[in-house]
Amino acid sequence: MTHLLDIEKLTRHFGGLAAVSDLTFHVDENEILGIIGPNGAGKTTAINLVSGVIRPSSGHVRVAGEDVTGLMPHVLARKGLVRTFQSTTVYGERTVRENAMRGAYLGMYPGAVAAFLNTARARRLREESVRRVNELLEWLNLADVAHLKAGSLPYGHQKTLGMVISLAAQPRIIMLDEPVAGLSAEEADHVRDTILKIRERGITVVVIDHNMRFMKGLCDRVMVMNQGHELTTGLPLEVLANPLVIEAYLGRGHAAAHRI
Ligand SMILES: Nc1ncnc2c1ncn2[C@@H]1O[C@H](COP(=O)(O)OP(=O)(O)O)[C@@H](O)[C@H]1O
Ligand SMILES: [Mg+2]
Fold it and tell me: Can you give the residue ranges of the ABC transporter domain (predicted)?
C-alpha cells in the first residue's frame, strides 16, 4: 500500500557518526505522527532529511509514491511537503502579514519569485496569495494583529505565525520541530488546538516534541527514536508505557523521562 509519506532505510552520517541510521517509517494521509526520543536521538536530522534541508547518505523519501529523495526544500514544498518555520525564522521587524506572505513564495523557484512580482499573471497570483494569507490569518486568529511587527507578538502567537507561513504554501504535509518548547501549559494547549484544526483541513502532520502531555493529546501514533534508530512505534499511551522507551530516556538521564 502506498502511504502519503514513505521513508525507507534513511541514513545520514556526520563524519563517523550515524545521526540517522536505517530509519524506516510511514505517515498516512491526514494522520498526526509524533516523533519522540532523547536529545541527540536524530529526530531533527530525520525531518531535515525528509524536508530536503540536508541530503541523506542513503535511503529513500517518497511522497504519494513519488521518489523525492534529495530534492531541495522549495521543490519539495511544491510537492506539498513543508517543514514548519520556527519562531527564530519569523522576521521580527516585519509585520505579521509580510511574514505570512513569505509562505506563498515557498513553493517557487527563486527566479519565479521575481516574475511573480512583476507580470500581469503574477499580479493575479499575488492577489490570490493575499486572499489566502488573509483567510489563514483570520482562521488562526491573527487578523487583528496582522499589521503589527511580528517581534512584538507573544511567543505563542509567533509560533502560530510560523504555522501560517507554512500553510500559505498550501502543503499536504507539515513537519514541526518542537512547536511547544519553551511555552507555558496554556500556550501549548493553544498550539495543540491549532494543529488539530490544521489536520481538520485534511493536512497531514509530523511533529517532534518532548512535552508528553502535549503529544498524548495530539498524536494518532508516536514513533520513538534512539541513537538514530526507530525504537518502537504505536499508540501514544502504549508507547509511553513501553519499558524500552522509559529506559531509553532514563538511560540517557533525560529530564523528559519524568514527564512520561
Ligand atoms: N550538522 C551536524 N553536524 C554534525 N553532527 C550533527 C549535525 N546535526 C546533528 N548532528 C549530530 O547528530 C545527532 C542527532 O542530532 P539531532 O538530529 O539534532 O537529534 P535530536 O533532534 O533528536 O536531539 C547528534 O549526535 C548531533 O550532535
Ligand atoms: Mg532536535
Answer: 5-252
Report the pLDDT value the prediction gives residue 185, as an integer from 0 to 100.
92
Residues paired with 25 in a beta bridge: 7
Helix spans in the chain (H):
43-50, 73-78, 96-104, 110-118, 120-139, 155-167, 185-200, 212-216, 236-241, 243-251
Nearest CA among 246, 236, 238, 234 for reference residue 216: 236
Q: Where in the chain is the domain with CATH 3.40.50.300?
A: 5-80+171-259
Please count the other Cβ atoms lying within 10 Å of the Cβ belonging to residue 40.
Answer: 16
Domain covering 5-80+171-259: architecture = 3-Layer(aba) Sandwich (3.40)
**CA 100 to centroid of chain Cα atoms:** 16
Looking at the CA of 40, name the nearest ligand: 1
List pLDDT tens digits, range 169-178.
Answer: 899 999 999 9
pLDDT of residue 215: 96
Separation of CA 12 and ligand 1 centre (Å): 10
Q: 51: number of CA atoms within 13 Å, CB side? A: 26
**What pLDDT does 6 receive?**
97
Q: What integer pLDDT is reported at residue 159 of this predicted model?
A: 86
| pLDDT lower than 50: segments of the chain | 254-255, 257, 260
| Ligand 1 centroid distance, CA of 45 (Å) | 6
C-alpha span between 220 and 85 (Å, rounded): 23
Decide whether any atom of ligand 1 lies within 6 Å of the 234 Cβ.
no
